Amino acid sequence: MNNAGVMTPPRRLETVDGFELQIGSNYLGPFALTVRLLPLLLTAPAPRVATMSSGTANIGRINFDDLQWQRSYRPAAAYAQSKLADLMLTLHLADLAAERGWSLLSTGAHPGNTRTNLGVTGPNLGGRRSPMLSVALKIVPIQRVERGAEPLLYATTSPDATAGGYYGPRWWWVGPTAVARPPRRALDKAVRARLWAESERLTGVSVPTQV
Question: What residues are annotated to the active site?
Fold first, then answer.
């Protein structure tokens, strides 16, 4: 279950590996962990990898020219990119499983708008939360943590979850778990494959040839 999350620090920060904090924590870390665990996962009778994305993936773009936001850092755009990358990880891993005949099930989820400290702790890493974000958190429908956790739990445990399935709140921001529609950019197989290859290069972690 991949569920790391850092959200919109107002200035560019880096992980100890030198990656921009959001793409490093939200995506590259889960990518490397998942790929490293694949040999062990594939020995299980019914392996599954569930990865948490976000509704902000809908406005994300994978900027291969500046994946690490070294030229011009924009907090919300960096967060959206990392969460689109998470969804692409879900879908490309499902493709790999199908191509190689693995029994592994790769699923994804997003929590909608959930009352956690994510929108506070991220901005406080590099300064104060923006007034716009403060207003948005007050006017957008929001749900309790228990309900926000349901889509990922469904993706992780439900016998009805499907390969490449994506799940979130029924009414986008809030509600019981339902099938979610991936954004169009997440469906681009060529971009997914390019992102996977770039992630292997950046992390130094590749799918073992023997699995």
Answer: 79
